[in-house]
Amino acid sequence: MTTRTASWLPLSPGERAVALEVLVHGPLSRSEIARRLSLSAGSLTRLTKPLLESGLLVEVPEGAALAEVRQGRPSQPLDIVAESRSFVGFKITEDMVYGVVTTLRSEIVTRYDRPLTTHDPDRVADQLGEMTAELARAHPGLAGIGIGVGGLVQERAVVGESPFLEWRDVRLAELVEERTGLPVVVENDVSALVEAETWFGAGRGLDRFAVLTIGAGIGYGLVLGGTRVPCAEEDRGFGRHWIVNPNGPLTPEGARGSAVSLLTIPSIRYQVQAATGREMTYEEILAGAAAGEPMPARVVDEAARALGTLVAQISNFAMPQKILLAGEGVGLMEVAGATVEETIRAHRHPLAAPVHLETKVSDFHDWARGAAVLAIQVLVLGTAKA
Amino acid sequence: MTTRTASWLPLSPGERAVALEVLVHGPLSRSEIARRLSLSAGSLTRLTKPLLESGLLVEVPEGAALAEVRQGRPSQPLDIVAESRSFVGFKITEDMVYGVVTTLRSEIVTRYDRPLTTHDPDRVADQLGEMTAELARAHPGLAGIGIGVGGLVQERAVVGESPFLEWRDVRLAELVEERTGLPVVVENDVSALVEAETWFGAGRGLDRFAVLTIGAGIGYGLVLGGTRVPCAEEDRGFGRHWIVNPNGPLTPEGARGSAVSLLTIPSIRYQVQAATGREMTYEEILAGAAAGEPMPARVVDEAARALGTLVAQISNFAMPQKILLAGEGVGLMEVAGATVEETIRAHRHPLAAPVHLETKVSDFHDWARGAAVLAIQVLVLGTAKA
DNA sequence: TGCCGTTAGTTCCATGTCGAAAGAAATCTT
DNA sequence: AAGATTTCTTTCGACATGGAACTAACGGCA
């Protein structure tokens, strides 16, 4: 627990670029890396040598992967030793802490959750410390901790404001560093998920990429040139003022007809409950809509149209190469995907590039994994700043 | 006319970065450039020397500009010799060719327009050649030509499709190069305007920047990281499928309630004409709205709301640091700017960064100037590719 | 089987860029 | 007039880079 790893510094910028390329884009031969980074073959020999000696990279057997029949000397792929470092990611919700351990490549190795019984900052930090200690037993090589919190996070270290925890200016990174001796990064949960998908998920290798999450609230993130665009409102919840349909429903949260009132799980449940008097779970509503029950079907249909409109607007104005729909509320796509697609088409120029839409139902461990990716980034890039 | 200037190559990447910084950001001292480009003072002495010797940069008297009282050796600002090169920009419309000559810094020096009496590609190229020859008499040092055309332009050289000229696959750059001996860049007019504003206008120095033009049609351009995002539909006209208000008017162009049917000059005139039976010019409609005439006021009000909604959506999803409203149809802002602002606020999170909105009424010479900037870019960057 | 073409990777060196440090220049302060 | 301060220049060592020549490992072909 005192393994304080000060990033894999010292790496020269060139070495770091090579390591990053291999980390994100899987096993690559030296000549392939040379092509991707526009470097000479000679430079690659030079840059990879210290990385191989330090054990961060290994030469892997060509074998399975590329079955192309080419002549000439076979290439020698290099790969990151993903297991050489482990990372912890936590997602804090009102009543639970979800934890994961991941490899360098952000594959989840272990899950470990515990109820959160207090919101006192020191007690929460204690609990995170204990959970880390527990995880460290099975994974001795922990290199860093990432923590995702809903709310405003500053400097990747301080929780400026979190309504559900009732925190203001809690120096969470510091508190957990004291207890674990590991470098800690704290970030807004949506931002963390976006970063994770950019490095290792749907947005890997893309220049422009957007993420829209639907769950208890709406989340949105835009990545340009491989970097997430920061924005002022990101930590206070999106979509309350995205008026999708001025004639839409009025719900407790969000303006009339806003994305929040049309799409979030609580709003959909509220609408069905208000219309039918029945308390139904989100899954029951989706099932009911699929089975043709009138009210669930109407609400789900309206939500699907709203989602299609939103996706089209994002495509039209932000022009991402890909949009990822994530969160607990994207089950909507399975039931009403056709309506969404149709609405997107209606709001797009017929000659415009088709929207590349990817759907990924995510649970709380995916959010925790997103936080772990931040710790990976710190190690790789050598800085906690965004 | 045979001065074929093959860009200001040969410049090293470092020299080019310095030249570009001075070109775009005005007179700068060596130490200031060093700070901006994160280079050492020594490097700046080295990099500026050949630029000064070649006559591209000059040392200018400190004088007027910064009246700060500082001690120490006064700085020695360097400036581009903006007049050392001249550029021609053309904007081709259905019945006119608008021409300008600009300096290296894209200041318009001369305007020269001529009616377009034919759409035959060779005859049009002839006319452009004649106009260039005419302009070259007063400006011997022409270094390049930029041409802006409404329609699809490929490779910055070929007009793939232009409905109003009835062109398909016209190698316009080649035709004009043959006649003038100068390097020629052809680009979609909206794209050219966006590039111009990015380098020398409202978007100067910004990382994320959006342009929305309103005129005969709608134009949109997004600049990220200093580079314009290309998109498939840009050359076929935007906004026909941006449904802003599903209950909006139905006009000859655009889907019901689309940006085109709510905002373009022809659609606004159509709506007023359909409701009142009177043919009114755009200016008359704006004046009428300001004076309280019911129908013009209603149409203008609805347009203002649509514009506000669009701007808010662009802000919400593309997150630019600034949005420029340009074109012949932004007179709307003078009459109904308050409604626009109000609508933007209604569609934005109260804590979100305020939208930085700039309005610039532009005429056809501004479009021609945009085209000239492309020629400047080619000279400076040494490539015609986007 | 052995030669050749091809591609991958290595070694070595010339080149060019960079930053650090020290010095020169130009101005203001005291 | 001396010192402080900032700008700019010069010099020099460090170092990343690309290119050339070379070795390595494979398939194709006679």
Automatic annotation (TrEMBL), chains A, B:
Gene3D superfamilies: 3.30.420.40, Winged helix-like DNA-binding domain superfamily/Winged helix DNA-binding domain. It comes from the Bacteria. Belongs to the ROK (NagC/XylR) family. This is MarR family transcriptional regulator.
